[in-house]
Design brief:
The chain contains 11 helices and 7 strands. The chain is of the alpha/beta class and 314 residues long.
Length: 314
Amino acid sequence: MTTRQLLPMVPRSQPLSVDAPAPRGNRPDWLRVRFPQGQNYQDLRHLMREQNLHTICEEAHCPNIGECWENRTATFLILGDICTRNCGFCNVTTGRPTGLDLEEPERLARAVQKIGLRHIVITSVTRDDVPDGGAQVYAETIAKLRDYVPGCGIEVLVPDFLGNWDALATVMAARPDILNHNMETVPRLYRRVRPKAIYEQSLELLGRAKALAPGVVTKSGLMAGLGETRDELLHTFARLREQDVDVLTIGQYLRPTMRHLPVERYVPPAEFAELKTSALAMGFGHVESGPLVRSSYHAHEQVQLVGSPATASG
């Protein structure tokens, strides 16, 4: 989210946090949002309940839900609503999922057609209990969406599939417009933030995705405020560019509950602006950087980087 508030720039070598105590008290003003109340938001909320659909917008209490739904953009959660992992930042329920709903792709596509979305993001819980991690369901969902809503932009935000590159190939063969896989944080913090994920494996996934479908935009995101330094963030930006990642999102980590990792620092808007400048200088095609930025923020605009539907990109 952009802001006109001008704050002093911080030298690039200064850490975003070094063993800082968790912030106390109210969130700063730049993290406050208005309660969503537009007509598009109300219509979508009603239809979501009517169609019994899950959205990460609601599951993760995203602060941008009002703005995105007003723009007829939503992020749907497939493969159930129970995750096999327990990341330190995520508020999605952890447990043992039930079997896959094989009718979900068509039901979701019909609902999106009825709702009239302009851009859709498909993500999922992580299903380490399924051999392909749910990749076939992703592919079938993309195919059904092409059938029912051919003018809708399609982005998929995928898990790491435990390094199963055949599963990734299944998703890429369906040609989403954007393939997103979030790094989330810097390598030093992976064990604490993403205990079952591997930093190098996530980087490799993004590189392989681009190699499998060069015409598909690749994207990744990171959170700030977990104790990382500026130099660590810049290093990860550079590693993402080595994998030819096109789009980068950077946002403030916000603690969902007291059971989750604490916020080490609230990063001011001007520092997000500086990170965006640095990232663009590395060659990213598009960067969203701000306190309220989330993975799907302004996703309906990022799909324009493709130039034409991914189905036409070979």
